[in-house]
Amino acid sequence: MAEKMRVDAKRVLADSLIELSARKPLAKVTIQDIVDNCGASRQTFYNHFTGKYELVDWIVSKNSDEVIRKFIGVEPWSRVLAKTLGVLKENQALYGGALGKGGLDSFWRSLYQYTRDFYIDSIRDRFGPEAVTDRLVFTMRFNSYGAVAREWAERGMNEPPEAIAGGIVHNMPADLKRYFQP
């Protein structure tokens, strides 16, 4: 029960930030704005996050996890990735301050780490730990930089997520791509 309350509190704070970001730039949203908007206390916020950008990281991870879990192994990887990028695009008002030109390096590092860890965990879970070789880890780390689609975000996410996802999958090295075929 305590775990569900912890996740619910995070979700309430996340929903508050998403709502606020539709009305004003992320850079201008304060912790006080977030908690006032949802009726939480500052202590509740700080029990879960160290700052608003950590909350943004959590939102990206949660939203991505939900899409990926639902569709991985069912849809081709390019469609799963397109759906994930689509979630970023749908919430572009929120991510604008963190994703745009000159966006926070910590946010990009977080996206990179999420992507890299996702690749490793997904392959390990679906194909066993022996599938995750040192060479494959290097390939995943290298490919993760492109998979976060930073340039797309910096250009305003104008291209359709499907086009970006197709390019990411097309440019995946063969020894990584084979793990993400339907």
Short synopsis of the structure:
By secondary structure, this protein is mostly helical.
General form: globular
Number of helices, where a helix is a run of at least 4 consecutive DSSP H or I residues: 11
**Low-confidence spans:** 1-5
Helix and strand string, N-terminal first?
Answer: HHHHHHHHHHH
Quantity of strands, as a count: 0
Largest sheet: none
Radius of gyration: 17 Å
CATH architecture of the largest domain: Orthogonal Bundle
CATH topology of the largest domain: Tetracycline Repressor, domain 2
CATH class of the largest domain: Mainly Alpha
Provide mean pLDDT, rounded.
85
CATH homologous superfamily annotation of the largest domain: Tetracycline Repressor, domain 2
Distance between the termini: 36 Å
Total of domains: 2
| Helix content percent band | over 70%
Task: Walk me through what this model shows.
- The protein is mostly helical and 182 residues long.
- The protein folds into two domains: 1-49, Arc Repressor Mutant, subunit A (Orthogonal Bundle); 53-180, Tetracycline Repressor, domain 2 (Orthogonal Bundle).
- The protein contains eleven helices and no strands.
- Helix 4 (52-71) packs parallel to helix 7.
- The chain is globular and about 50 Å long.
- The model is unreliable at 1-5 (pLDDT under 50).
Keywords for this structure?
182 residues; mainly alpha; Arc Repressor Mutant, subunit A; Tetracycline Repressor, domain 2; 2 domains; 11 helices; globular; disordered N terminus
